[in-house]
Design a protein that fits this description.
Rossmann fold, 225 residues, 10% strand, alpha/beta, 6-stranded parallel sheet
């Protein structure tokens, strides 16, 4: 089974981060009994860095389709070629905040979600997807109109998942991380720190396990010293 992580700055990470991708790789490595691979056209952190917090994070597991400042509108034209080349079976997607913050409103962003899904399926008709809603962030805490736009997008995202899921290519909506606290789980009000990375990975892991029997319950792995 081939997994692809798709996301923005919260997924690609910066120099010195573990990333939630790393946490998911650890989780799958310890709980998924079948053969699996992490796939994607990219492997670097922000600005091309390879300075992951764990230098032992293997190159083959660093693969992803994520970019700092990239959102649904950027990934919609990229997902088809990436999924086809990587022969992705499952997409784990965390997008939306950057779109709403800089590029598109809730309705436009939801339309790009649908473009993304169509392109992924054209490339890989049986592909599965888990989509994460936009999670708490500092701008939404301080900017009421923006918070309303985030809430509206999350509603539209849930509707898109309900409309578009099929037996052949199921789509699931992950939960917003329970108890996620931007003052504890991020380093700047938006980007996850170690505890935030675990919370994000935990939500994806829970959906995979509960809905599709992939992996097991999420238990953070011990970190190297």
């Amino acid at each position: 089974m081939r997994f692809m992580f798709v996301g923005d700055s919260m997924t690609i990470g910066r120099a010195g981060d573990y990333t939630w991708r790393y946490r998911m790789w650890q989780h799958l490595s310890s709980t998924f009994a079948g053969p699996h691979r992490i796939v994607g056209p990219r492997s670097e952190l922000y600005e091309g860095s390879d300075a992951y917090a764990d230098p032992g994070f293997p190159e083959h597991a660093r693969r992803h389709l994520a970019g700092w400042g990239e959102g649904w509108q950027h990934m919609a034209p990229l997902i088809g070629p990436a999924a086809r080349e990587g022969r992705a079976d499952v997409l784990l997607v965390s997008l939306g905040l950057i779109d709403l913050g800089f590029y598109t409103d809730a309705d436009q962003t939801a339309a790009n979600v649908r473009r993304f899904v169509a392109a992924a399926r054209e490339a890989r008709p049986g592909i599965r997807m888990v989509l994460l809603p936009v999670i708490p962030n500092v701008r939404a805490e301080k900017d009421a109109p923006f918070a309303a736009e985030v809430a509206r997008f999350n509603e539209l995202l849930a509707k898109a998942v309900a409309d578009l899921t099929t037996a052949a290519s199921p789509i699931l909506l992950a939960a917003r991380p329970s108890g996620y606290d931007i003052h504890r789980d991020t380093y700047d009000g938006t980007h996850p720190n170690a505890s935030g990375e675990h919370r994000l990975a935990g939500e994806f892991a829970a959906v995979l396990h509960q809905a599709w029997g992939i992996g097991g319950p999420y238990r953070p792995a011990p970190q190297p010293r």
